[in-house]
Amino acid sequence: MEDVRLGEILQGRLGGQLEAERGVREIRKKRLKGDVAAAKERAKTAELTLATISGLLKIEQENVNNLKAENERRQAEVLNEGAFGTVTVVEHEAHGSFALKEVSPDAAKEVGWAAMQEVHILIDLMGHDNIIGLKGFDLTIRSMPILMELATCDAFDVLEGGYFYSVLQKARIMRDGVCGLIHIHSFDLVHVDFKPENLLVVKTGRERRGKVTDFGLSRSRGTMRPSMTGTATYMPPKNLTADMPADFDQDAFSAAVVTLLMLLKPTIQANNIFALNSLLTEEEAERAMLIDRRDEAAEVAFQTEVMKRTLADGSFERNVLVPKNLHHAVPSPEKVCQWLKDGLSVDPSNPPSTKDLFDNLNDLIERLTGN
Fold first, then answer.
1. Exposure of 118 by Cβ count < 10 A (0-12 exposed, 13-18 middle, 19+ buried)?
2. Which end of the chain has fewer CB within 10 Å, C or N?
């Protein structure tokens, strides 16, 4: 993996400022649903964010030169590692800690394209409280480093924490995530891969804020989304087997799945909540026992098949999406189950809505806080 000097990224030599300025100009050109005032407001927000980034990037040259290499970049922890590359915690003596995302040298070229797309989208979306912050990047070298705001954890860690996080904290993190999706949709973009790992939690003081990340698979609304693009566990059934245009309801379904996981009792968790062992038919249970657990593709294919059935025949709704399975602290569980059912709707005449999910989460938070 090519070494990237953090001091250089922060100093702005890697072209981040230039691209950010281009992003501001692009935002100025946008006319979101004919709302010129909204477009101007977004441009203003982007300019303010750019000013903040520029202030961070203006490091005295002599100070940068005097920094020792071990202080410029120190790998404190690998946050994520896979075929695409790595996300690493990096620290700078003067400017604190960041997340550095780099493409693996042997990654497929599609991964590089995804990295370029992610940078361009982050520039467009920057400045929003529920989108992870972009701090710098360089698309001219092979590792395509992207320097981002460092999160405390992600929503998957929150789920793994069980009872450590309160229902109120989980609901607020989810509301933030849905708010981020609504912002993404205002740019006519569909995230495509919203899941717990892509909802980061940033802690500032005593406050935890959810922020959406990872835009490598995102699509413009209406452009073709190949089947199985995303993560099967969180995808609506219609996207599991057929190519179809990307649309906002697909993100809304994914967000409803994550919301359900947040509100269920911590004891009710699975790789695919729609394919719990208790939902399997006798024939499916026999087939499940024969699957080689090392064959991930076969297991995903099986779970996907079961997921489609349990959503279509109502067995998931009857056996899992019921008040007794929600966390004991969830108020009005019957009402919550009803709006979760709406969020997981597979009826094309009644598609899920991020706006409805946001309003319902807001109502839940008000009930939990007594406001």
1. buried
2. C
